[in-house]
């Protein structure tokens, strides 16, 4: 599948069709700009930009530049009346809604105009694993205390998993600069990690996308893999939480216990995504994505399994994630317990097959994903699609379905 992607290096903008992938977008921008420009997106190259952008879209540059949706300046879409619209003709309310409110509730987004961002010619990455015997718990606790406060050029993201008879926290990081500048920053903010020069590797930003997605990193790194669509095809189940306070050090034992309850065939991980920096400086009503200041990180619950797995594989992984999710209830954001629309959680309620929902159900998932922005999204939906033609399991309902709530 070939999707149109026009990059204007002089203007630092691009038009990209919704069917393009994150990997293709990263590759073409790097190619045209000699590795000096990029766009803030996630680290899964096979994800399509249409859904990624319309849900907000975050990745390793969120502390430096914020979300994908924060940098969208125009869009082309087809509305329920079959009209082809751009930003001017759709109006600012609808343009606001599709940048983080889930574009599928409002129409068919064909393409996006984006402002590109600068990256240095050299970035530094590292992956430092630490077991329980190497003080992984204390390191995770310390990370929580500094993750949103370190320099905005530094993004450190721990991944917690079970490896045989122990737990391993792998501290993976991207730094927008060279290793000589990185090491003093780590020494000042996170000396307990014990980072050394030999742990670090310098590369271009587009090469770091390959690195973060878990490909076998050759020398030189083959960035051509970003152009394909033959990525790591697996089934997976995911949930998301936001945290405004660190998990107490002693509470990690309960997390470990849940991992150790599972058999070796059940593969779950917790991924910690740091906040602070640019994403926290933007108002939570600027676009529909509201999870800004006050959040120290996002916690992603993830379980993946191979396509040829047995019938009960899903149930085992689903049960594990639900146990972890329930255990974390006292430690995550509350009133509401917030969630990320791009990790849609159907456990919190769905529309029926006709797109109808009760007031209570709509407000439950609406406030989790969008907080008070949910109400503005409902008003936009009512204006542009009052008959609810564009709908899915958790689409934004028009006013007539939630008017008692408002």
TrEMBL record:
Q: Which Pfam families match?
A: BBE, FAD_binding_4
Would you identify the family this protein belongs to, as annotated?
Belongs to the oxygen-dependent FAD-linked oxidoreductase family.
List, in alphabetical order, the Gene Ontology terms for molecular function in this entry.
Answer: FAD binding; oxidoreductase activity
Q: Which domain of life is it from?
A: Eukaryota
- Mind telling me what this protein is named? FAD-binding PCMH-type domain-containing protein
Q: Does the keyword Ubl conjugation apply?
A: no
For the keyword Oxidoreductase, the answer is: yes
Which range is the signal sequence, renumbered to this chain?
A: none
**Segments traversing the membrane:** none
Q: Which residues form the FAD-binding PCMH-type domain?
A: 1-119
The record's PROSITE patterns line, in alphabetical order, gives:
FAD_PCMH (PS51387)
Could you tell me the keywords of this UniProt record?
Answer: FAD, Flavoprotein, Glycoprotein, Nucleotide-binding, Oxidoreductase, Signal
- Gene3D superfamilies tied to this protein: 3.30.465.10, 3.40.462.20
